[in-house]
Model the fold of this input.
Amino acid sequence: MTILVAPESAATPSQPRTQQRNYLTDGYSVRSWLLTTDHKRIAILYLLSITFFFLLGGAAVIVVRLDLMTPQADLVQSETYNKLFTAHGVIMVFFFLIPSIPAVLGNFLVPLMVGARDLAFPRLNLLSWYVYMLGELFTLYALLAGGVDTGWTFYAPYSSTYSNTYVMATAVGIFITGFSSILTGLNFIVTIHKMRAPGLTWFRLPLFIWALYATSIIMVLGTPVLAITLLLVGMERLLGIGIFDPRLGGDPILFQHLFWFYSHPAVYIMILPSMGVVSEIIPCYCRKRPFGYAFIGFSSVAIAVFSFLVWGHHLFVSGQSIYAGMVFSMLSYLVAIPSAVKVFNWTASLHKGSISFDTPMLYALGFVGLFTMGGLTGLFVAALAVDVHVHDTYFIVAHFHYIMVGGAVMGYLGGIHFWWPKMTGRIYPEGWARLSAILIFVGFNLTFFPQYILGYLGMPRRYHVYPPEFQVLNVMSSAGASILGMGYFFPLTYLSWSLYFGKRASPNPWRATGLEWQTSSPPPTENFSETPVVLDEAYDYHRFDSLAATEGGGK
Amino acid sequence: MNEWISYLRFSRSVLMWSGVVILIVAAQPPPAMAQRFATGGPYNTPAGKSPTAELLRDVAIEQHLDAPLPLETLFRDEAGQEVRLGDYFGEQPVVLALVQYRCPMLCTQVLNGFLKSSQAIPLQVGRDYQFVAVSFDAREGPELAAEKKKHYARVYRRPGAANGMHFLTGDQAAIDGLTRSVGFRYQYVERTDQFAHASGITLATPAGRIARYLYGIEYSPSDLRLGLVESSHGRIGTPVDQVLLLCYHYDPLTGKYGLAIAGLLQFAGLFTILAMGGFLIVMFRRERNQPKLVRDATSDTVPIALQDNPLSQWKQS
Done:
């Protein structure tokens, strides 16, 4: 994408950058942050809050992994253990993974990438953060007051009748947070439709935008169902209306249907934006247009559509009719098609590219490998007979961690590193960053690969007492978790360090295409002083590099 | 060449026939599976398996919703007095249980099931509704009925049971008239001197029309409560019950209050999808008219003021 930039804006980069006005220096008061409608500042607010929750969810699972070092229950009691893994699941899914890329990178990048000055509804955007924080408060209250022990899935009638923990407070928290993702999704859809720069047609859009567009549709369509489900649980718990409890004339399977109708697409809310990030990183570090641009874009849409048709594969052993099971099994296999299209296209993009293994690229390649493993084991569990064997075992735990951590979190970290210079105007220390990317990859595999074996051998999830023959694999997993924890701790440290001591970033340190790189780093509050005009296809790295070579200097 | 053609023909017919076989097999679900996942009335017993199967086929509760009960039929109450069935109607809805007092198994369960649910709801026998049990065994008399009444009035443990619970007996003609209008089909089995019959209770309106059937031997309290509220046409129950009735719909197939919520969800889901789909279609149609900007072939490929472009910034560093 090449840009027509007016001379006025061109003057700014040549001035000393310390004096340059940008969104970070545009007001220093607390008020200027808490009442901001600038999408970039809201993204930073989200970044801080989800990082806090990531640490909290991580702390819960540290205790879980420590307890699983021995076959006996010697660190925590069973009730505490239940509360710990529930806290880990609830926090990581609803308060970290779902808002991670859309609310942080999406908020920051969508207007920049489409050449707009802000999102379509800036105040709604700020409201979404406050709604998220309100939900966060309810959940924090529930955790501090005594926790929840239902597991993150809140299966009825356990959650509606039998659990004596703070189910309602947590459910209210998640209910409220859901509105924040609806607002974000709505904002993105309208922005992508209405605020694209002149000349920026759909097929010139960055693939990250395609991915976020698909994600937003899932958010707007799916999240209300989760809200309805939690509302019904509340009605049953508080008013005794029989909805899920068979004794009151309800149906517990109905809960599972409603819950997974949202929560399965929610997995794609986590993974699709990550795929978008990877689709940005790989072309930049291969200096090539991605292979099959339209296929990657449309496979995002296809995944969004299919995501709503596969929820029943969570109910294979719940008493769902065998015919429904067969249909859901087939539909689940269909999701593999667009997913595989993406993986093959990314790999094909590497072919004959000039690849450099910088940190974001390490994360992106890690994503491709781990996502493939998670996706392929997803096909195992989508098969009816195999699922009967591995259902509710560590095989499932390993499978969805490969997708949600190996996929979504790797993509998130890759994206954070890739756009860190744009967001903060600073360069992170490359050596440390590469080291931590490798640590995370190694630690992750050591943590979760043994869990596939554990699950296949029959260790059920959600138990902290297990037969002694499983101890070796569990110790391996816990050891891996400690490496993984170190891997996560490093970026937290050096990224914070780089805020003060990092090298200042030029507007386009990675020589990437994309409108976000055509403004200063960090961008001014209004993003572009002149509305950019787009004349070229996306990811025209060939033209970009040849232009740089002929115009003097260049690599 | 000829071999090739015959080979092709052969494989084509093999393919075709195997397709036909697959279709036929697929069209017939395995019997065990079909039975396990079949829906329908709970009393669709598998016929033709055992000697009693023939018999059981004729035993069922056939729903006669909104049919009038024979209110003029005469029965005897527990005191031996002759009473009209209609004596118990008029003001309040009626729970009607067709049982055999001496029945060793199912009927006691039916009565106990009703008792358990009736104790779990705020509505009271005698004050809010009437309970009438009628024996379908013509050989049973008022003594047995009195015994039953004494027992159930005591374990109900709420006032009003004495004038709200009635245990009737009658002659064969009266029993036939009542069971026919309720749709309660039963059979006498000579071999065991027992009755083969289905189990369930019937709710009737104060005017003596059949409003609801509740199947089985356990009745969910909310089904009973909402059934009574509905049968009484709003004369008993609280406003909350009325609101609840809007969300619950009686499902004649299972005799339970299934959820109209499911229907509501379907409607809301469809509405959401149509609204969102419509919005997207409008947006995409509007965008069609936008001009596509392309680089002018005659002009140089260098964008305006390249040296001022951030791109050149990178090159200098």
Notes: Residues 78-114 of chain A form the longest helix (37 residues). Chain A touches chain B through 57 residues (CB under 8 Å). The CA atoms of residues 147 and 288 of chain A lie 50 Å apart. The two ends of chain A are 19 Å apart (CA to CA).
